[in-house]
Hints:
alpha+beta; 11-stranded mixed sheet; single chain; 11 strands; 67% helix
Amino acid sequence: LFVGAFIIANTFTMIVRESMRGYALLRSVGASPAQVFASVLIQAVILGIVGSGIGVLLGWGLLEAIAKGMSSGGMPLSGSPAPSATDVIIGVIVGVVVTIIGATLPAKTAATAPPIQAMNETVNPEKPVKARGWIGIVMVALGAAFWVLCYLGAAKRVDWQWLKDLGSGWTLGLGAAFVVIGAIVCAPAFVAPAAKVLGWIPSKMFPVTGKLATRNIGRAKRRTANTAAALFIGVAIVSCLGVVASSMKTSVNNLVDNNVNADYVAMTASMTQPISTKAVDAIEDTKGVGASSAVYMLPTVKATNAEKNVMTAAIKTDLLTKLAPIEQQDGDAAKAIDDGEAAIGRTVADDEHWKIGDVIDLESENTSVDEEATKQASEAYQKQVESQATALQREAQQLAASGDVSGAQAKAKEAEDVVKQAQNADPKQFVKMKTETKTEQVRIGAIIDDSLYADSIFISVPTAEKITSEDMMMVTQMYVQAKPGADVEQLGKDLKKTVKPFYTVSVLTRDEFKSSMSSMINSMLAIIYALLALSIVIAIFGIVNTLALNVSERTKEIGLLRAIGTSNGQVRGMLAIEAVILSVFGTIVGIVVGVAAGVVIRAAYESQGMTTLTIPWGQLVLFLIVAILVGLVASISPARRALKQPVLDAVASE
């Protein structure tokens, strides 16, 4: 929507520009500025309703396609992808509001232009952009300052309590807001310098068309900047996610290589589906298994005296000492777990201001089958059936005694049907559930600095069993190490045979585990990339609109160029170079801002495992290549329009 607002603004600028003589005529015969302003907004409302309606239908179709794709992949959606009436109404309202916002400035231009000037189609000189440039630079500097604070706080370079209380999320978000908005504000001031730099190569390769294109880009600085901003937003987000994703994958690989000593990792195909306790027992009993530890996530267990929602997990000490040994800690985490105490990550300790010796109040609401109530419900139903059948049989006997044989047979059949219906009743309908709250106070015995353990509370399995049921202890992963002297390769084969009856459980080597984690990251980002690709498509329309508006304003100029011998190919080349410079400008600004944001995000989450910064240079180069292609594609339609008008008509245009 944010990207679309820029395109709508440019589109209405073109509409107003081509209708200016009509608006001037209205003003000259007595129409007020408010009436002209309202007429443009009414166009915006109509286009907003039509566009939003089409958007709702396209969105519905997209959801249907996603639902079918997920169903074929074994992950069917539980709900219907069809939008509700509320969804449709909200979608249309939002679309109309954004369209009105985008059309407001062009409507103001139409309403406030002097009638005589508008009638003559004289173009007002563009307002200076120097002051706007300085304002934008100040905003970018302020955003960068927030990012520096975020980095200093995350890296613990400063020990300011107010910065800790503010949290990295606020400094990160405020920094991003100021940088993005500041870049958009100051962009017009950099259009002309950027055009000279980016147009240097085209000017050398194509002396005539390259110089003309470079000059034309700097004519309407605000319009060019707005068009580039539409591309800038999408590219910035994609670049940021690219840095974050690459850093996550590299960090996971380094973490496994440097901190995990397990030979194999058992996990399910879906992280939301736990490994059964039977599978855990079978793996532990496999010949050749030495140290092993399942990681039991405890979703029902909460630390009631914690300000934030902290995940609690139950582990064996083998994980801390052999499988993923701790490098830095305060206290002895393995001893604390064995003694029934808790070991917490450094991030949790800092967020909650906890230290060794403090007590964590753990609470769990456990929902289970109420055996007694279920038994009573079943017995009550049986008594009701017996009573109903007995009453019907008594009526049948009375009817038989009175000589009504057919009536007696009907009642007897009815009694028989009641008994059969009871025999076929679903036992699940009698199941009664109960909720029981259990609490446990656990002393903090150690604080772990390693990023693998940074953001959780760890307790022993016996301690977990005191406050939650075994059914609610979800095993997400299990680490296995071969016995000293055992054949590691043979152990892997034996483990795969062991888990074969459990279908969903897989045993992965270290390399396979790293690849699996990378695939999960890619899957999470895939749909985001797909949605962001739509913003790139919208930006292409914006470039087309801007070039079309430029062509409209330069009709006579292009006609004169053609009249003095400029070929059709040179006109196409000029517009293509303009489009490429525009799209590359937006892409480069987006890459710079996006990469900077990714670097700060990586630093902010370093303590949670994102330890290594990786910048995907290949992906960024690909963005630049795509930007050039986007410009070339976007120039096709405006170039066709420029060449469609006969030369004499173009030269004679008023």
